[in-house]
Amino acid sequence: MKLPATDRVYPGRSKIFGLNPNVFFLGIVSLLTDISSEMIFTLVPLFLRNVLKAPFVSVGLIGGLSESTDAILRIFSGCSAIE
To answer: Cα separation of 12 and 3, whole Å?
Structure first.
């Protein structure tokens, strides 16, 4: 019987939930990165207003600029993915 390529390289290595440990831990790191970036993104307006004493207009402009940049980049990345 022929073993899969990963079992030939690391014959004694166990799997985590049926995945290679490298893939499993990469997924965990990606999850934690997403959580932390979402937490920071929601705190930016509070930081601008309370710590830097920025006016409400500039907080709104920064939020609008970030959202519009996100939307424009999604359009271009979607078009480039189609091609």
So the answer is: 12
**What tokens does 44 get?**
């930016």
Consecutive H or E run containing 78: helix 56-82
**Concatenated DSSP letters of 8-74:** HHSTT---BTTB-HHHHHHHHHHHHHHHHHHHHHHHHHHIIIIIS---HHHHHHHHHHHHHHHHHHH
Residue 19 tokens read as 């995945």
Instruction: Please give the model's pTM, rounded to 2 decimal places.
Output: 0.60
pLDDT, one tens digit per residue, over 27-78 is: 999 999 999 988 998 899 999 999 999 999 999 999 999 999 999 999 999 8
Q: Which of 54, 34, 35 is nearest to 44 (CA)?
A: 54
